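Late entry, methionine sulfoxide complex.
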Amino acid sequence: MAETLIIEGGDKAARYASLRGQLAALLAGEPNRTARLANTAAALKQTFDWLWVGFYLIDDEQLVLGPFQGPVACFRIAHGRGVCGSAWARNETLVVPDVDAFPGHIACSSASRSEIVVPLRDSYGDVIGVLDIDSERLNEFDDIDARELEAIAALVAHGDAA
Ligand code: SME
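Prediction complete; structure with ligand written out below:
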């Protein structure tokens, strides 16, 4: 299929619904993990225009910067550090309504106000990295984002034949 994305206007749920099917079709043709992560970051950025959308992948006991869209970001995050390292250590999605209120938050961009981090798991359920999204608005993310982004994280992580 052509690598295009057409997102209808509307509320958050409508945008996720529009994105979901198209992303599944897009990823179905590509087994390489880097390529899948790259276009997933681009599709999320294009759909919601958040400040930063990207992936960190576990490498040598650290999270290392992977494909992303947005301003330059820190290369490496230790286990348990910041929102990303905490989501990895706890193996759970973290929704942070106000990053200044999260102890140990790592400020890659001073424009970031709220954040969501979703673990990326392989087919055995082991964490292989995280999907990290930052917004310039406080309180941007809620249960709908957590549910939808967990589904997208599962979609992008699996089917990896690379
Ligand atoms: N804020 C993250 C660091 C990564 S950047 O936001 C891209 C954290 O606290 O883990």
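DSSP finds four helices and six strands in the chain. Will revisit in the morning.
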